[in-house]
Amino acid sequence: MVTNVTMPSAAGDQSGEAPLVKATDLHRSYGATVAVDGVSFELRRGEILGFLGPNGAGKSTTLKILTGTIAADSGSALISGINIEESPLEARKRFGYLPESLPFYWEMSVGDYLRFIGKARGLGGDHLRRRVDEVIDLLGLGRMRWRTTGALSKGFRQRVGLAQALIHDPEILILDEPTNGLDPQQIIEVRALIQNLANTRAIIFSTHILQEIAEICTRIMVIHSGKLVADAKPGELSGETSDGWEVVISGADISGTDWRRLSLEKAGSIRGGEHLLTYRGSGTPDITAIEAAARETSATLLEVRRPRKTLESAYLELTGMAAKGRGGGR
Amino acid sequence: MNAVGTVYRREVRSYFSTPIAYVFIPIQLAILSFFFFQFSPFFAAERAEMREFFALMPLMLFIFAPAITMRLWSEELRLGTSEILLTLPMRLREVVFAKFLAAFTVLCVSLVLTGGIPLTLAWLGNPDWGPVIGGYVGTVLAGAMFISLGCWVSALSENQVVSLLIGVAAGMVLVVVCSPGFATYLSGSSPNLARIVEDIGVISHFSSVERGVIALGDVVYFLSGTVLFLAMTITTIQAKRY
């Protein structure tokens, strides 16, 4: 069983503005399978929320509940304070949504498709024309404007998906794996775009690329087996931990020393000739004694430090996959 | 109504920018003309009337209406385009109606193109235009019901071929199974069931249309059938949220 290390909400915005997205105790099952199990969170303007979890953890289901694509069994989702179930039309005007599978009408050109989405969203006349031009510009789709969406590469399709989500300039963006299938150059561009858009908006996007989260998110939520297991700022999940100590010793062979006497346990080698030991005792390690013990085998004490946790290890720990390794999700 | 117009225009353009309309309409025209001029007693009877032509219509509709409608929802569901479509700020009933209207338009275009047949009649003889116009009006009404049935069937499956087959099967129930002939067969054992079967069936409501007569009861039958299947389409799509 996973230990819940849910941290207090990292919602940084203290401006007093109501949250743009508010999910309260969402539940959703498919038959006997529980997909979302008591998910609650708030999202404010200016936040970029990275929604992380193994495949099948409930990411897409949560996003689909927020957009009203599927109904929750219980709980409520408010979009700009509007309940998605009670006033779906009003709520739908407030967000742009990029689904995980990039669904287009293959026979339509990029320009026609964006015009169609814009019209369906109530834009018209000059405003529609201007917005289509703006999003085409913003996403670098100029050369693709007259191409049919079916003839586009994955990267361009992803951009068209983002363009349709932005056509009505929404204050909330709900993006299901927006960088999926993009090449590194495109990933960098989309990340920069998301960061730019976040100033005046609230953005939630799901991903399973950890690096992405660390780089652009102001906040991370980890979902596992339908439950939120973490809601924190990126720095709170990775970086130095506050308990325990690690000792790094440099030397060719340090096995001649009885480290256990100093409550140290060998944890492995870092690279050639450097060894990592974990301090198992209470209080702080006795540096003088460790230094002396190291000298016995002509080794040197290099460092005594707090253990570091990478985002990867934090994620694996949270999703209960640390022991099993990266062997996939549910 | 802005939503209906937007979705309608997209759907109609889609029909005419993919091969569907161009394959479907000529085939329908060819079959209708062939059967009318070759197999019906048209030339033998030497009467300038289209009764035999309209008699072919129920069979034509239950095969070709699902062919028009099979992609309407199946393709949206398969590609996932419905996921964006249904998160746009439009009412589901508007979207359903717009799609229905688009498929209905394709059917009407194909009916307009059969205009060569009455023109041939006018060239060969002196037809009574009342029954001809009545026959077309009746066919349009029946067509609305078959298109609506096709919409619903299309919402049931992500596979277009499955939608087509279920659509044809459902049409067959309405045209062939619930026919006056079968009702006569049933009337011996259970007269009540026979009456219901005949009332549900299309043929009993279409027989006067063949003669070019539009009875109020038949209009009510075709229109309520259209509304019923559209409502079932809405319910079926809504149910996918749960």
Q: SSE layout and pairings?
A:
The complex is a heterodimer of chains A (330) and B (242).
Chain A: E1 21-30, E2 33-43, E3 48-52, H1 59-67, E4 74-79, E5 82-83, H2 88-94, E6 95-98, H3 110-120, H4 125-138, H5 154-166, E7 172-176, H6 184-197, E8 202-207, H7 210-216, E9 219-224, E10 227-232, H8 234-237, E11 239-240, E12 245-250, E13 264-271, E14 274-279, H9 287-296, E15 300-305, E16 308-309, H10 311-318
Parallel strand pairs in A: 3-8, 3-9, 6-7, 7-8
Antiparallel strand pairs in A: 1-2, 1-4, 4-5, 9-10, 11-16, 12-14, 12-15, 13-14
Helix pairs in contact in A: 3-4, 4-5
Chain B: H1 2-17, H2 19-39, H3 42-45, H4 51-55, H5 57-79, H6 81-85, H7 92-112, H8 116-124, H9 129-156, H10 160-177, H11 180-187, H12 191-200, H13 203-210, H14 216-239
Helix pairs in contact in B: 1-7, 2-5, 2-7, 5-7, 5-9, 5-10, 7-9, 7-14, 9-10, 9-14, 11-12
In short:
Chain A has 330 residues and is of the alpha/beta class. Chain A has helices spanning 59-67, 88-94, 110-120, 125-138, 154-166, 184-197, 210-216, 234-237, 287-296, 311-318; strands spanning 21-30, 33-43, 48-52, 74-79, 82-83, 95-98, 172-176, 202-207, 219-224, 227-232, 239-240, 245-250, 264-271, 274-279, 300-305, 308-309. A 6-stranded mixed sheet of chain A has the order 6-7-8-3-9-10, with helices on both faces. Chain A has a 4-stranded antiparallel sheet with strand order 2-1-4-5, covered by helices on one side.
What does this structure look like?
The complex is a heterodimer of chains A (330) and B (242). Chain A is α/β, with parallel strands linked by helices. Chain A is 29% helix and 28% strand. In chain A, the strands form four sheets. A six-stranded mixed β-sheet of chain A has the order 6-7-8-3-9-10, with helices on both faces. A four-stranded antiparallel β-sheet of chain A has the order 2-1-4-5, covered by helices on one side. Chain A has a four-stranded antiparallel β-sheet with strand order 13-14-12-15, covered by helices on one side. Chain A is elongated. The two termini of chain A are 13 Å apart. Chain B is mainly alpha-helical and 242 residues long. Chain B has one domain. In chain B, helix 5 packs parallel to helix 9 and helix 11 packs antiparallel against helix 12. The longest helix of chain B has 28 residues. Chain B starts with a helix and ends with a helix. The model of chain B has no long low-confidence stretch (mean pLDDT 89).
